[in-house]
Amino acid sequence: MHRRSVLAIALALGLTSYAGAAAAQSGPLVIYTSTPTEQMDQLVARFNESYPDVTVEYFRSGTTEVINRLQAEFTAGSAQADVLLIADTVVMTQLKADDRLQAYPDAPIAGTDASLHDPEMMFFSTKLITTGFMYNTDNVTNPATTWAELTNPEIAARLMMPSPLYSGAALINVGTVVNQDGFGWEYFEALADGGATAGRGNGGVLDAVARGEMDYGIIVDFMPLNAKAAGSPVEFVFPAEGVTAVTEPVAILAGASNVEAAQAFVAWQLSEEGQRFHVGQGYLPLREGVTPPAAFPQMEGVDVMAVAPALLLEQSDEIKQRFADLFGG
Amino acid sequence: MRQAVATGSISLGRRPIMKAETLLLAVLGLYVLGLCVWPLLRLLTTIFAGGLTEGVSFILDAWSTPAARRATVNTLEASFWATILSVVLGVAMAFLVGLSDIRLKPLLVFLLLLPLLIPPQISALAWLAMIGPQSPLWLIPGLEALRPVRNPLLGRDGIILVMGLEHAPMVFLAVRAALRGLPADLIDAARAAGSRPMGAIARIVAPLMLPALAAGAALAFVSAIGNFGVPALLGIPGRYPMLSTLIYQRLAGFGPTALADVAALALILAGMALVGIGAQVLILRRYAVATDRVGGAHAGFALGRLFWPTTIFVWLLMLLIAVMPLIALTAAALVPSVGVRLSAETVTLSNLIYVVTGLGSAQRAFANSLFLATSAAFLTVAVAAPLAWLLVARRSKMAQALNAAADAPYVLPGIVLSIAMILTFLPPVPVLGISLYNTIWILLIAYLARFLALALRPVVSAMAQIERATEEAAQMSGAGPLYRLRTVVLPMLAPALGAGALLVFLGAFSELTVSALLWSRGNETVGVVIFSLYDEGNSTAAAAVSVWVLGIVLCLALLISLVGRRLPDGVLPWRM
Amino acid sequence: MADVSLRGVRREAGGRAIVDDLSLEIAHGECLALLGPSGCGKTTLLRLLAGFETLHAGEIMFDGKIVAAPERQLAPEERRVGMVFQSYALWPHLDVAGNVGYALKVQKLPKPEREKRVAEALETVGLPGFDKRRVQSLSGGQRQRVALARCLAMRPRLVLLDEPLANLDAHLRETMIDEFRRFHAASGATLIYVTHDQAEAMALADRIAVMDNGRLRQVDTPDRLYQEPCDAMVAQFLGQGQLAPVTVHGPVENGWVDVELFGHRTRMRARPDCAPGPAQACLRPGDLVFAEEGGASMPVTIVSTRFEGGSTLVRVAPEAAPETTLNLRVGGRAPMIGERRSLAISDGWLLPVASPG
Question: How far apart are CA B320 and CA B161, in angstroms?
Fold first, then answer.
C-alpha cells in the first residue's frame, strides 16, 4: 500500500446536516486519507492547535479502499468527505476530470514549486515522497547504488517491489520509469526475468526486506528511513540515476459541506508550520527554506525523474496490464 | 390454540395450526432476504445499468478475459486441494480426539482451533516468517540443507497449505459434534461381528460421519474460494492470481465500470459456492441417518502400540501448525523495529504497551470487535436454529431457499459484500429515517449477513440427525410447534449451536475484508487495525495487537470453560 | 373415554395403497391389537390415528367427532392422544421427571399438581423415586416404563403403542405385558397396540385386528381368531396353524361335520354354510395326538423333533401323503426320528370358502 495521506472520518449519522452551522474554520471536517493512522492522529492534534474549533473526523485506509469507498458513495449518490489527502496524483487527475473536485484559487502556494500543483488549483501537493530502493544490512555487504544494478539476476531474484495494480505510488513509479530514456519496459522485463517478486504495497516490502526474507526492495523513502532510526537492519538508497517522486496531493471535494474548514486545512498543509510538521514526521518538504529531515541528503543532490500526471493517467491501464502480464498479478 | 382439555371434545372447527410457523418463516425470510440477498442484488444492478442485453454481454466479456479464466481455474484448483487437506486433517483429529485414548485432549483441541483465532493475514505472515530463509527453523542442526533461497510458500502450494490448515478447524468441529452423538452400540456391534477397531471405524463410523464431513467440507470449500488474505499475501507475489485478488485488483483500478466488473466476477464465485453447497445437500439427503442419541458415546479405543508414535506425531504437527506461528508472531511483537533479531538485548515490551495505551484505535477496536463478534454469534445462531428446524423437521421449501441464499454473502469476497452494504445502507433506512453508514450498526449488519452461513452448517447437519420420534413424542404430549422447538429441539441442538456460535465469534472477531470499507473513526475493528498497521510499515505494532487479541481470546475461552460446566455436553468443543 | 371409528380410510404412497379402504370401530376402554406381518400397514394406520400421516380418503373420528378427513386433519398435538414409541423416544436433556411431566408442562399445570401426577405415574409403573434420574442411566425396561409413565401422567383417552416391546428380551417382555395390563386397568384408556408378535397380541388384547397388505383380514377376540380363523393367512399367522386339504362328507350338525383327510375320517368344526366336497382345514398342534393303531388314526412317520422346554414339537409325515408335514406337541419322552406312529386328529376348523368378488 503506497502512502497516500488523506484523512477522512465518516460522519456519525445522517448526511450533510451541518450545512448552516459551519462558521469560519469551525465545525466538523471529514477527511479521507491513506496516511498512516499514527501520523494522522499527530497531524490532527497539531492542526487543532491552530484551529481548535474544527472537529476533524477521518477515514484512513489503503488507497484502494479509500477510492472504493468514495466510488461507492458517489454511486449511492451521497459523498461524505470534504477533503481528500492521498498519495496519488493520477487518481486526483481522474477525479478532477470527473468534476469531483472544487478549486481553491487563493491557496497559499507561493514559496513552493508551482509545477507541483494542479494548474487549475484543484489539488495541491503537500510533501515529496520519493521512491528508491532499500536493502537489508545483515544480508548485503556490497549494496547496489543504481537502478540498473537491480536487474542483475542475483539481485533481482532477491528483490521485492510494490505493484501498480494495488498501489498508486507504485503506479507512478513504474509509469515514470518506463517513460525514461534508458529504462522503458525493458527494465521491468529484466527484473521479471531475473525473478523479482511483486507484492501489494510498500508496507509489505519493508516487512519482507527488514526480516531478511528479501535482500532488496523498491520502496518509498520514509518507511525504511524511519525503520532504520528505530533500529531495523535496513538502509535506503537514492539511486544515482534519480528517484521517482510522489507528491501527496490534497484536494477539496466538489460536494464538501465545510468548505471554509477544508480550505483552512489545505492552507495549513502548505504553510511553513505544516511543512515543518511533515519534516518532523520524516517527509521531504515542498516549501523552500524548510530544512529536510536529517536522514535525507540535500534535495538539490537528488535527481527527480518526473512525468506529467496527465500522461500517466492516459497510460495507467496499459501500465497495469503490462505489469500484470510480466509479474502475473 | 390449546384444545379443550377438560371437556375432551375436539372438532375441526378452527383454522389449521400453521399460523405461528408461518409467522416464524416470514420473520426469518425477511431477515435472510433483507440482509443476504437484497444488498447483493443491489450490487448486481450495477451490471445492468445500461440495459439487459448490454449487461449480459458485459458479463460474458468479463468472464472471457484471460485473467478471469486463469483466476477461475486457479481458484478451483487451490480451493479443491485446500479442502482436501482440511478434511484430512480435520477428520483425523476428530477421530483421534473422539475415538482414541490420546492424552491431553482439551489442549489438543484448543491448539487445533487456534487458526480460527488469528486473523488469516497474520497467519499467513507468521507462516511466511516461519518457512522463509531467515527463519530460526533452519538453525536447527540437520535442517540447514533444507533452507530455501526463495520462500516456498509463495504460489499455489503455499496457498493450499495455509488455507487447508486455516479451515481444518471447521471440518473438525463438524465431525467432532457428530461423533459425540454416535451411540457406542454401533461400534460395539461392529467389533462383535469381527471388525478390528480400524475396520469398525472405516465401515461403520466413517459412513455415518459423512453428513457432518460434508458439512465441514462444504464450509471449508466455500471459505477457500472466498478467502482473500492468503491469496493476497502468498498468491500475488507468487504469481498465482485467484478470483478474490482479481476482484480486489479490479477495484483498485476504480473506473466507472469497476463495480459492474466486480459484480460479474462475483457471480462466478457465487456459482462455485452453489455447486459446493449442492454437493453437501446431496450427501445429506443420501447419507443422513437418524440415530438414537440416548445411548452414551463410545469410550474410545486404546492406541496400544501406536500410542507413542501417534502422540509424538500429533504433537509435532500441532507444534508446527499452531505453536510455531504464534512464537514467530510474538517474537515479531517483542522487537523494537521490524527485522531486528530477537535477543536479550533487543527484547522490549514497548510495542505491547504502546498499542494499548498510546494507540486509541487499538483500544476502541478491541471493544468494538468484542461487541460485534458476541452480538453476531448470538444473533446468527438464534436465526440458524429455527431456520434449520423449519428446513429439516418441517421440510419447508422456503426454508431451503433461505438456506441457500445465506451462502451468498459468505462465499463472496468481503470487499464485495461491503460495497453492496454501502450501496444499500448509505441512503437512510425507511421508517427510521437515519443512515446506518458510518455507525457500528452497518458493521453488525454486514457481519450478520456474512456469518449466517457459518452458523447454519453445523446446525442443519445436527438437525438432520435428530430422530423423528423425539419430536413426535413431544407432539403427542400436546406441544405446539414453537413450544417443542424451544423445549425439545433446541436443547438437543445445543452442541451444534455452540459450535456455530464459536465459529461465528472467531470469524467475526478478527474479520478484515468486510470491515475494511465499512469502519469509521470510533468504529474500528481489530482486523482493520492490525492490517492498517502492517500496511503502513508498522509490522511490530501489528504483531503486538495480534498478541493482545490472542491473549484476550484465550482468556475468554478459559472463562467460558470455567463457567461452561452448566452448558450441555459438547457445546464447548474442547471440553470432553 | 373415546371410541374410535375409522371409515374407508385409505393412504397411498408411491402409487400403491399402504392402507386400503379400512373400516373399523373400537369401543371405548377396549384394547385392540393391530397384528400382521411387516409391511402390512399397521404402523401407518397407527400414525394415521396419531396424526403424523395424512389420509387420502375416508375419515377418522374420536368420540363421534371427525379428527381426520381428506380436506382437513387435526394436528397431533391437538388430538390428546398418548403414544408409546418403539424407541421410547425419551428426551436425553430432561431427567425422568422432566420426561414424564412434559405434557403437563405444556398444559401449564401448576407445579405442585404436576409433581403429584408425575409421582403417581412413576409409582404406577413401578419406578417410585426415579424423578431425578437421567434417562441415559436407565435400562431398556426402565426406559419403557418411563415412556408408559409419560403417557399415564397425561391421562389421555386414547393411547397408541407402536411395537413397544420389540427391543426387549423375552423375560422382560413377559414382565412388561403384565405391566401393560396394569396400565390399561389404571388408565381406563382405549389402547391401540401395534405388534407383529401374536403372543403379545393374544395376551393383551380384547380384540385383535389382523392386517395384511393394507387391508383388514379379520377382527375378533383372540379366542375366536384362534378357534375360527376366516382365511388361510389368519390361520397360518396365528397359533402356528397349518393347512391341510380335506374332503367334507355330509352336512354340518351343531357346528360339527364329518371330514376325511389323508384317508383318515374324523369330525371338525365348520360354519353352518359349509358344503360337502373339497375344503381346507386349519389344524393347530394341539388338535393332533399320538394314538393307538387302528380305527380313528392314521399312520405317520416321525420327520423331526424339537425340544422346547416343557414339551417337544414333533413333525410327522402322513404315509398317505409323505410330502406334507404336520406338527404336534407331546410331553414326556420324544419319539425317534423315522419311527412309525399313529396320529389321531381330534379337532380342526374348516376355513370358510372365500366369497367371490
Answer: 12
Identify the burial level of C15 via C-beta atoms within 10 angstroms of its C-beta, where 0-12 means exposed, 13-18 middle and 19 or more buried: exposed
CB contact under 8 A, B251 and A64: yes
- From CA C249, how far away is CA C258, in angstroms rounded? 5
Inter-chain contact B521–A324, Cβ cutoff 8 Å?
A: no
Q: Is the pLDDT of residue A18 over 50?
A: no
| Alpha-helical runs (H) found in B393-438 | 397-405, 408-411, 414-425
Query: Selecting from 3.30.465.60, 3.30.710.10, 3.40.190.10, 3.40.50.300, what CATH number does the domain A27-128+246-297 have?
Result: 3.40.190.10
What pairs with residue B23 in β-bridges? Answer: none
Report CB contact under 8 Å: A11, B536.
no
Q: How far is B532 from chain C (nearest CA, A)?
A: 47
pLDDT of B387: 94
- Contact residues on chain B for A140, CB-CB shorter than 8 A: none
What the block records as the C-alpha cell of C265 is 375320517
Q: CA of B295: which chain C residue's CA is closest?
A: C136
Q: Cβ contacts (< 8 Å) between B469 and chain C: which residues?
A: 85-87, 89
On chain B, the residues whose CB falls within 8 A of the CB of A9 are 520-522
The alpha carbon torsion through B97, B102, B107, B109 (nearest 10 deg) reads -20
With bands split at pLDDT 50, 70 and 90, how would you rate the model's confidence at A7? very low
CB contact under 8 A, B427 and A77: yes
Q: Do C107 and B478 touch (CB under 8 A)?
A: yes
ipTM: 0.76
Interface probe with B: pick from A11, A74, A165, A171, most Cβ of B within 10 Å = A165
Superfamily of domain covering B50-566: MetI-like (1.10.3720.10)
Distance in Å, alpha carbon of B357 to nearest chain A alpha carbon: 13
In this predicted model, what pLDDT tens digit does every residue of C59-71 receive, in sequence order?
Answer: 999 998 999 999 8
**Mean pLDDT per segment of 10 residues, for chain B of length 576 residues?**
35 53 89 90 81 84 87 95 96 89 84 76 77 70 74 88 90 84 74 73 82 86 86 85 84 64 82 82 75 60 80 87 81 85 82 85 89 95 93 89 86 79 82 81 94 84 82 90 89 83 84 81 84 82 86 77 61 55
Residue A32 has pLDDT above 50, yes or no: yes
Q: Where are the domains of chain B?
A: 50-566
The 10 Å Cβ neighbour count of residue B5 is 12
pLDDT of A15 = 32
- Please answer yes or no on whether A232 and B516 come within 8 Å at the CB atom: no
The CATH architecture annotation of domain A131-244+303-327 reads 3-Layer(aba) Sandwich (3.40)
Choose, out of B130, B259, B262, B338, the residue to mutate when testing the contact with A (most A CBs < 10 Å).
B338
Maximum distance among all Cα pairs of chain C, rounded to whole angstroms: 77
- Greater pLDDT, C55 or B144: C55
Distance (Å) from the alpha carbon of B235 to chain A's nearest alpha carbon: 8
**CA B524 vs CA A277, B516, C32, C81, C125: distances in Å:** 26, 9, 70, 57, 63
* Domains along the sequence of chain C with CATH: 4-232 (3.40.50.300), 240-350 (2.40.50.140)
Question: Mutation test of the interface with chain A: which of B538, B540, B545, B546, choosing the one with the most A Cβ atoms within 10 A?
Answer: B538
Tell me if B10 and C92 make a contact (CB, 8 A cut-off). no
Among chain C residues, the shortest Cα distance to B486 is held by C106
**CA-CA distance, B319 to B130, in Å (whole number)?**
12
